[in-house]
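Page 37, continued from 36.
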């Protein structure tokens, strides 16, 4: 599971997710006055944004693929 997107219709533009994500995943669109997911691949799954968003505007996905690390090569 990882962060997929900000649901625009729900986002109230408070920037809480932009300011608090430890992985710097979000950016703020000042024209739309909404946050959006810019670097979703960097999400560390802490779920802080989901917990803190006052509007329930952050959608998760189960689609994330984790890289496979090997000890050779
Ligand atoms: S789950 Fe954590 S790392 Fe991922 S986008 Fe939200 S705050 Fe950032
Ligand atoms: S915390 Fe939620 S409401 Fe606030 S900017 Fe982020 S997605 Fe929008």
């Amino acid at each position: 599971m990882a962060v997929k997107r900000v649901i625009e219709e729900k986002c109230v533009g408070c920037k809480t997710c932009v300011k608090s994500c430890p992985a710097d995943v979000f950016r703020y669109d000042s024209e739309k006055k909404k946050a959006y997911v810019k670097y979703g691949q960097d999400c560390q799954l802490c779920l802080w944004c989901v917990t803190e968003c006052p509007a329930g505007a952050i959608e998760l996905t189960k689609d994330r693929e984790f890289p496979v690390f090997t000890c050779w090569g």
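Strands lie at 2-6, 26-29, 34-37, 58-61. Flag for discussion at group meeting. Residues 2-61 form a domain with the Alpha-Beta Plaits fold (CATH 3.30.70.20).
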